[in-house]
Specification:
By secondary structure, this protein is of the alpha/beta class. About 25% of the residues lie in helices and about 15% in strands.
């Protein structure tokens, strides 16, 4: 395992997560994620809208597509809030929407996964667009492009902003389980079940751009047992530790901008973290829709958008190297960051192992690397998920021996489960950027940010 964090250890263990549970809960309650976007009238400032595609050009995405690598033959699952798959940039994309959703009203009726309400559906719609955007543009607008438009995308709704949905009358509503409680009868949250179902549906990569404190370790363990990569957005707020990004073996994604600097948290400090794995483009990106119209465009920022870009890159690499395992894909991710070509991984708390590089990963056959997830700590029985949880999931597939699972040491904390792990959700797409105002007035928030190495 490559060194990780100030002490060279792996991801946060279950014991550490439990010890920090109260501070995580308080931080989650206290953190206000403000979604400020730069509204770009399509015809008036198309040039500004096009500037939101800097990541597509910088990452040489079109060159990969021209070479025939667009993620074809790979399944990517996105778990998020409600979605509007009928926006221009998603029409014709291979998106399968799973119904019913994992959100129910007080009577036990499921809320729809599809919605045309902007507040309910804008986040997921844009997350999905980062992967499978077709390149179509609204009238007078810029093209909405995805990094892997050829993938088969599976979409699941397990809640969203503050774990809520919008009902048929456009009213904010709470996302409940079928029995009317927040927690399912089996002690698992909707997100946890969604991960399990994505695995069962054959996903190769799972992308999650929501974050909070809900325990999804069982679903993640099933993903690892089935050779699935899990990618998740870290918090946007000064290194707050959130799940699932902070779980053992998950690819936690940071956001950086065109200037190569990572985003700042809400207090103006660089968003450093002990569990960041990689960084993806996530500042001033072109988004679909505004509160006025789905045909309008705006610029937005956050790890929510960096996360699907990284997931899409891995899908493109998986297409070129279909024999690569999940562990080998992650090995390639951390060995081929930035623009320096293949190298030994080095870590820092700003960008983890560095900026994800599609060009770098495509140039190296990942099957040369060990078939092991380099960011998974297999030795700590209190890690969440732990190796014994993965072994148990493999045993359920007939591939392992669950009786060999180790028992936690006396007094050791179990991974957080049930209601004790429930914290209000924070959306990963908090947005802090330049606000464009019609008439040419520009209000810029200029704060120092740490650069990628």
């Amino acid at each position: 395992m490559a060194d990780r964090g100030p002490s060279g250890r792996g991801l946060l263990t279950g014991r550490e997560l439990m010890a920090r549970g109260s501070s995580l809960f308080a931080a989650s309650l206290g953190a206000v994620v403000v979604a400020v976007v730069a509204v770009v009238p399509s015809a008036a400032v198309a040039g500004t809208a096009e500037s939101g595609l800097w990541w597509f050009d910088r990452g040489n995405i079109q060159a990969a597509h021209d070479a025939g690598f667009d993620g074809s033959g790979v399944k990517v699952a996105v778990i998020d809030s409600q979605i509007n798959p009928d926006v221009i940039g998603l029409r014709g994309a291979d998106v399968t929407v799973r119904e019913p959703s994992y959100c129910f009203d007080a009577s036990g009726s499921p809320y729809p996964t599809v919605s045309t309400d902007y507040v309910a559906a804008s986040h997921a719609t844009n997350v999905v667009s980062m992967i499978v955007g077709t390149g179509e543009a609204p009238p007078g607008g810029a093209p909405v492009k995805g990094v892997a438009p050829g993938v088969e995308l599976l979409f699941y709704n397990s809640g969203g902003v503050l774990d809520g949905v919008v009902d048929d009358e456009g009213v904010d509503a709470e996302c409940l389980q079928e029995d009317g409680t927040k927690l399912a009868e089996d002690g698992r949250f909707g997100l946890d079940h969604a991960i399990s179902d994505a695995v069962a549906d054959g996903a190769d990569i799972i992308s999650i751009s929501s974050a909070g404190g809900t325990d999804v370790s069982k679903g993640v363990a099933e993903a690892y047992a089935n050779d699935v990569v899990v990618v998740a957005g870290m918090a946007n707020d000064d290194g707050i530790e959130v799940l699932p990004a902070a779980l053992n073996g998950v690819v936690a994604v940071q956001a950086f901008g065109e200037d190569g600097k990572i985003q700042n948290g809400q207090y103006g400090k660089p968003n450093v973290s002990d569990y960041v794995v990689t960084a993806g483009p996530g500042i001033r990106l072109l988004l679909q829709g505004t509160s006025d119209s789905w045909d309008a465009q705006e610029l937005g920022s956050g790890t929510s958008f960096a996360t699907p870009i990284v997931a899409g890159m891995l899908a493109v690499v998986k297409q070129k190297y279909p024999e690569a395992t999940a562990g080998q894909l992650i090995q390639s991710l951390i060995h081929n960051t930035g623009t320096k070509g293949e190298h030994e991984p080095t870590w820092d708390d700003a960008a983890g192992y560095g900026a994800a590089s599609l060009t770098g990963m495509l140039a190296v056959d990942p099957t040369k690397y060990p078939d092991v997830n380099p960011i998974f700590d297999a030795d700590d029985p209190n890690a969440s998920p732990s190796q014994w949880m993965v072994d148990e999931a493999k045993a359920a597939l007939g591939e392992g021996d669950a009786t060999a699972s180790p028992t936690a040491e006396p007094g050791a904390a179990e991974p957080p489960t049930g209601a004790s792990a429930m914290v209000p959700w924070l959306i990963g797409g908090g947005i802090v950027l330049v606000l464009l105002i019609i008439g040419g007035i520009i209000l810029a928030i200029v704060l120092p940010r740490r650069s990628l190495r």
